[in-house]
């Protein structure tokens, strides 16, 4: 569940996240394709959403001098972009950098 892992960490002010697995995850072309699809779609979109929201919050509320974090650690408040104002797009260039970006 991306919200209760990455989202929760970002809301509490974490600077990053670590993902791990083992060689079994990449043991076949099918597994590699499944991981690639997951990274480029739900995981990638969520990371771009949370990262962009955290950057905007820092610029707006902290004038770029720190990270936003939830004031009440037990509250269900997360750093997410408003879907009515922002969309996550895939960069369709031949060698895209970044692969995904938020626009709004």
TrEMBL record:
SUPFAM superfamilies: (Trans)glycosidases (SSF51445). It catalyses: Random hydrolysis of (1->4)-linkages between N-acetyl-beta-D-glucosamine and D-glucuronate residues in hyaluronate. It is a lipid-anchor; GPI-anchor. Interacts with MST1R. Belongs to the glycosyl hydrolase 56 family. Coiled coil: none annotated. Keywords: Cell membrane, Disulfide bond, EGF-like domain, Glycoprotein, Glycosidase, GPI-anchor, Hydrolase, Lipoprotein, Membrane, Receptor, Signal. Pfam families: Glyco_hydro_56. Signal peptide: none annotated. It is found in: Cell membrane. It comes from the Eukaryota. Its main location: membrane. This is Hyaluronidase.
